[in-house]
Amino acid sequence: MNAGGDSNGFKIGGFGKKVINYDPPVHTVKNCLAANNGAHGFYSNHQPGQSATWTHNTSYNNKKGNFTMVECASISNTTDIPGTREILHYNLSYKNNVLDEANLPSENNTDNYWNEDTENISADNFQSLDASQLTKDRGPDGALPDITFMKLTNNSKFNMLGCFN
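Structure tokens predicted for Pel9A-like right handed beta-helix region domain-containing protein (165 residues):
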């Protein structure tokens, strides 16, 4: 595939690191899949404050990291800090950095793959790691194709996580 833009998967928030005089919106990112991006899979993009609630997302093999939560200190201070205000629940990450630039309070960061036994995840947990399935044609009715890429196997202990649960 040819990359376009800046090669991020889901780039949420951010204001070009400029001072603003209003509270930025908080987004919801739910049931999304980011794979094989040249930069970040899920990226809070220097949001001054919380950029999103990230729930039931799956991220795979993104070059600069799967979940990157860097924030600006405030709406009047564009200094980058590890994310402290993001909310992440039931997310799944495989291959490459799992969670970067985050200093989240425990109540904001629960039931994610990285909160579980991360030593036991392997290719065997997935039905397929064949990303070419993402380029399959839509159905005649416009429906997304039925794929097995990044879907967990029935016996995976991580079945409650990610976008295909």
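The first strand starts at residue 10 and ends at 11.
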